[in-house]
Structure formats: structure tokens, C-alpha cells
């Protein structure tokens, strides 16, 4: 691509800054990495897709993303939702060898660049036309770029980015840390391009070429859980696994939700369509035991065989179920309070309370939710003798945040007591990612803001 003229602009003065380029074409020996890993010389893009548009690149049953992979021969990975984040990271990568025909002039580009524009076109396809100027479609594109790579976009004294602004007339900004979304890594910069769709496309091409020619020194770590340390706001965005937890066999992990009997139809759906969808998307087993219900409650048991270093199917399913199995009370029109109830073995309740109530106080402070451990006399009839009940109350986002805190701690306690999560047998500084939710161990696990899934499920 270096120095080629194309229908998106001229790149003659955008020569590579990397001596390893070999004229813009780099080959990566296959024996240096696994087939799905990101190599140090690969072409990599991380495109931020609004949550509401993610379906346009996934498709039903993943058919669209499969087609995009097949057409471009690039790898496309869609990261899970991060709690409180309105965007998802789409990682697009491939060998840097320029093999794909692109644009009106059939220029050769790397598969990843070809795939980047196919993803981009699908995401902006439904953007409305500006009301003032009918012929214009105003769009904004956001990319995450490693800090050690952003210099190739800016240039000495900002000359490179200014040249691209002048040539394309696009608004191009490198936004500060306070604008980084929660799904960003701690070492990321946020590159934003705005303007008319045609202008943005030209600028995106020039910037993508710069990133192609100057790979990040850290990009091979992007798919590694150990590098999955995400920007946090309010204490956490999910979790990243401590190094001490990367070994050990799978464990059975289960959670028991107390659901009002009147909510069961919303959980199951017509013909079981909702519960089947949640089972399929989460990978967890979900059992609704209405036969054991007494009074106004029934039990929903969610379980899966899990490895500690992997995202939890059980927590994923519980967060998807939460808006449907919670009791909803309208304080006033448009102002609803949700109450979620979880049964916990008495032997594990201590990991939620902490010494002197320190842990539960911290969770309350972080989430602003009402989190209570109910006394024995207030337990529902469906509870077993050796169980206690955690009750979480607040608006849906607050309750989802608190439920993630509670369930992640319970999961960590299961693995810790089994000897796979921590050799110390206690929550210490090494295990801070689960023990206190305050350290940089917390990262993007992919549990996400599943309270928002109420809009996806069929009623």
C-alpha cells in the first residue's frame, strides 16, 4: 500500500516509519505463533461499535461475521460487552501481506484493512442523513490505538494528522484519558474521526494505512487474558484473572435465583424461546423449578463447568436473567425499583460480608445498591436449611452492577477454597481483582451490562 495512489487519497508522503516493513509487505512465519494469535508484524485494527448496532455485523446466528471472515480472509473478533460501556470492541487482524483487491482501482491491501471497511460500511449503513443537508450523512468513527502506535498517526509536531485533516476535510481527534470508554485498555489512545461519510471514509483509509505500516510492539498481547486490563470507572468494569489463577481443572459453579412465580412466563417465553436463547448465548444450564415453589416464589438454578481463567457462563446467564426474574416496583411512572434475590450456602456468605462487614459495605458504596443478607425468619420457603439470602435493591443498572459484584466474589470463593485461585487461602493483594474490586486487576471480562438485554429478548 505504501506510496500507492487510490480512490481514497494519495499516500506518497505516508511512507512507513518501520524498518521491518519491506515496502509495506511483511510475512509472518506460521511457526512463530498459533493460527489465531496476533503476530508482532500483523495488521491490527480495533473498531468501536455501538452496542445497538452490533447485530449488523454479527447477524443471525453469526452468519454476517462468518461471511465477512470468509470474504476477506481476516480474523474478526467481537469482544464481550463491558458493564456500563455503550460500545463493543471489534478486533480485526490479519497478516500484513497485501493480497486483497480494494476500491475502484483494485489496489492491493492487507485482509484486515479490507475487513475494516466492510465492517465500517455495515455499521454506518443505517446512519440517518443530516436534516439540514440532505446529501450528507454525518458519521463518527472511533478506533482504539495502542499508545506506542499513536505517534505514527500524529507525526512530528502533529504534522501527519494535520496533513490528513487538510486533504480529507475530516475532523480527527486524539481524545484524552477522560474520554476513554470502559472497554479500552489502560495503554490505549482513542482516535475519533467525524464528518460526512465520504470524508470520514477517506480519512479512515489514510489512518488505517499508517497503522498498517507501523504495528504496535504490544499488539501480540491483545488477545491474552493477562493483558486484559481495562479502564475502570467507579471501581471496576469486569475482571481480569490474576496470574496465580491460570491453572487448575474446571469446577462446577452454580447460582440459585429466587423468582416471583408471576415472572416465570417472562423468563421462559412463548414456547421456551427466551430461556432457550439465554442458554444458547451464555452456554450455561438453566433449570426453572416451579414445581418446588411454595407461595409466591420459585427457584431458577443456573450452572456450568467453568475454568477460572475463562469468563463465567453462569454469571453471564444470571445477568441476562436478572431483569426478568427480579421483582419490579413502580415508585412513579418511569421510575422503577428492582429487587433481585439470590440464595447462597451459609458456608460461603462470609466472602460477601468480610471482616466487620467491610466487603458488603464496599460493594454498597461502589454500586449504590441496597445489599442485604436477610435473617433466617425472612427466608422464602424455597430456601434450604443451610442457605441464606442476598437481596439487592435499586434501579436496574445499580442492581446489575451489584449482582456482578456478588456473583463474581462467590465464584472466586469457589475456586479459592478448591485451591485453584490462590495458594494463600485468603483474599490478599495478589487476589485483589476479586477481593476488593479496587485494583488494576479489574478488567473487561465480558459479563457486560446484561440489564440491557431486556430489549433483545422477545416478550
Automatic annotation (TrEMBL):
CDD domains: KH-I_PEPPER_rpt1_like, KH-I_PEPPER_rpt2_like. Residues 1-39 are annotated as: Disordered. It is found in: Nucleus. One of its GO terms (cellular component) is cytoplasm. Keywords: Nucleus, Repeat, RNA-binding. Residues 41-121, 137-212, 251-323, 336-411 form the K Homology domain. It comes from the Eukaryota. The keyword Nucleotidyltransferase does not apply. GO terms for molecular function: mRNA binding. PANTHER family: KH DOMAIN CONTAINING RNA BINDING PROTEIN. This is K domain-containing protein.
Amino acid at each position: 500500500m505504501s506510496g500507492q495512489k487510490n480512490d481514497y487519497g494519495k499516500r506518497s508522503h505516508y511512507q512507513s516509519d518501520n524498518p521491518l516493513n519491506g515496502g509495506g509487505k511483511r510475512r509472518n512465519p506460521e511457526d512463530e505463533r498459533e493460527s489465531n494469535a496476533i503476530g508482532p508484524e500483523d495488521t491490527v485494527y480495533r473498531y468501536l461499535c455501538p452496542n445497538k448496532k452490533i447485530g449488523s455485523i454479527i447477524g443471525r446466528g453469526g452468519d454476517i461475521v462468518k461471511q465477512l471472515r470468509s470474504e476477506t480472509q481476516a480474523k474478526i473478533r467481537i469482544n464481550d460487552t463491558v458493564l456500563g460501556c455503550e460500545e463493543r470492541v471489534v478486533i480485526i487482524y490479519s497478516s500484513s501481506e497485501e493480497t486483497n483487491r480494494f476500491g475502484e482501482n483494485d489496489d492491493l491491501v492487507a485482509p484486515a484493512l479490507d475487513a475494516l471497511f466492510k465492517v465500517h460500511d455495515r455499521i454506518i449503513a443505517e446512519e440517518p442523513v443530516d436534516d439540514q443537508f440532505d446529501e450528507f450523512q454525518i458519521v463518527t468513527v472511533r478506533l482504539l490505538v495502542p499508545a506506542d502506535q499513536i505517534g505514527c498517526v500524529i507525526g512530528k509536531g502533529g504534522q501527519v494528522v494535520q496533513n490528513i485533516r487538510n486533504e480529507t476535510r475530516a475532523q480527527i481527534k486524539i481524545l484524552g484519558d477522560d474520554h476513554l470508554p470502559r472497554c479500552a485498555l489502560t495503554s490505549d489512545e482513542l482516535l475519533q474521526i467525524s464528518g460526512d461519510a465520504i470524508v470520514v471514509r477517506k480519512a479512515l483509509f489514510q489512518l488505517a494505512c499508517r497503522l498498517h505500516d507501523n504495528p504496535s510492539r504490544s499488539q501480540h498481547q491483545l488477545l491474552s487474558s493477562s493483558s486484559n486490563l481495562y479502564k475502570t470507572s467507579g471501581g471496576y468494569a469486569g475482571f481480569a484473572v490474576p496470574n496465580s489463577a491460570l491453572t487448575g481443572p474446571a469446577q462446577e459453579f452454580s447460582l440459585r435465583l429466587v423468582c416471583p412465580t408471576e415472572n416465570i412466563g417472562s423468563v421462559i417465553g412463548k414456547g421456551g424461546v427466551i430461556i432457550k436463547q439465554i442458554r444458547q448465548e451464555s452456554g450455561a444450564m438453566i433449570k426453572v423449578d416451579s414445581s418446588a415453589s411454595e407461595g409466591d416464589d420459585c427457584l431458577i438454578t443456573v450452572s456450568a463447568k467453568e475454568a477460572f481463567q475463562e469468563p463465567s457462563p453462569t454469571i453471564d446467564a444470571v445477568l441476562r436473567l436478572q431483569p426478568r426474574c427480579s421483582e419490579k416496583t413502580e415508585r412513579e411512572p418511569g421510575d422503577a425499583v428492582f429487587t433481585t434475590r439470590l440464595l447462597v450456602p451459609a458456608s460461603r456468605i462470609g466472602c460477601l460480608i468480610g471482616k466487620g462487614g467491610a466487603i458488603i459495605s464496599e460493594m454498597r458504596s461502589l454500586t449504590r445498591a441496597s445489599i442485604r443478607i436477610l435473617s433466617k425468619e425472612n427466608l422464602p420457603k424455597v430456601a434450604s436449611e443451610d442457605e441464606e439470602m442476598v437481596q439487592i435493591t435499586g434501579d436496574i443498572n445499580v442492581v446489575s452492577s451489584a449482582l456482578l459484584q456478588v456473583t463474581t466474589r462467590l465464584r472466586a470463593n469457589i475456586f479459592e477454597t478448591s485451591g485453584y485461585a490462590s495458594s494463600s487461602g485468603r483474599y490478599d493483594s495478589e487476589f485483589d481483582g476479586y477481593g476488593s474490586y479496587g485494583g488494576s486487576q479489574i478488567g473487561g471480562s465480558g459479563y457486560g451490562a446484561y440489564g440491557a438485554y431486556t430489549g433483545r429478548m422477545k416478550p
